Amino acid sequence: MLELQENLQAVRQRIRAAEQACGRPEDSVRLVAVSKTQPAAVLRAAYDLGQREFGENYLQEAMEKQDLLADLDIVWHFIGPIQSNKTRLLAERFDWVHSIDRLKIAQRLNDQRPPGRAPLNVCIQVNIGGEPTKSGVTPAAVAELAQAVAALPRLRLRGLMAIPAPTADEREQRAAFRRLRELLEGLGMPGLDTLSMGMSDDLEAAVAEGTTLVRVGTAIFGRRPPAKG
Ligand SMILES: *Cc1c(COP(=O)(O)O)cnc(C)c1O
């Protein structure tokens, strides 16, 4: 618990220092705590330390935690790959979906967003390095998809998300994040206010390139057990 508190403070401090280093205002970057594989009790502990936004990758696992934490005022972000037969639950249970990579998924989320709720916040995931095995749309396909998603009334398109190939070279980190920022700016669409980029190992580079939302897991919760499906 003490370790969680220290980690969370350290991550907030890293974000603040990075904001200061490039002259950005304090609190211009929102912190989503990526809690995949962590039990509900750990999320509750982070909540008690002031963390409100959590990111999950696996729907089934997320739903179990959502049920256990229904008494808390959490903003839930879905950041994992989307199967089209799971869109209804995503539309019902999340506040944000970061990983839109095709129009069919967006249309289903739009149709399935419950009428009583605010439009679902979404980002389009971009395969910024063009790696064949990675999910996300190609940079060349972003503009067309963004126009189509923006026209869906039950979704609110907020911006772009990327998971660049890991590298320890800060210039390469920044180059990838810069490409995502330039893509967003190039869309020239009003209302897009979100760059979802930056994780435990590269959040400083992301802040320097204008991220508005970092997704941080390991630096808050410690190393995860190997990923499950
Ligand atoms: C796991 C994950 C993160 C967090 O990564 P860390 O390196 O643990 O900070 C961020 N974004 C996505 C999409 C993830 O799957």
TrEMBL record:
CDD domains for this protein: PLPDE_III_Yggs_like
Coiled-coil residue spans: none
Keyword Thylakoid among UniProt keywords: no
Start and end residues of each Alanine racemase N-terminal domain: 7-225
InterPro entries: Ala_racemase_N (IPR001608), PLP-binding_barrel (IPR029066), PyrdxlP_homeostasis (IPR011078)
Necessary cofactors: pyridoxal 5'-phosphate
Keywords: Pyridoxal phosphate
GO molecular function annotations of the record: pyridoxal phosphate binding
SUPFAM superfamilies per UniProt: PLP-binding barrel
N6-(pyridoxal phosphate)lysine: modified positions: 36
Pfam family, one: Ala_racemase_N
UniProt key word Methyltransferase: no
Gene3D superfamilies the record matches: Alanine racemase
Role played: Pyridoxal 5'-phosphate (PLP)-binding protein, which is involved in PLP homeostasis.
Family: Belongs to the pyridoxal phosphate-binding protein YggS/PROSC family.
Record protein name field: Pyridoxal phosphate homeostasis protein
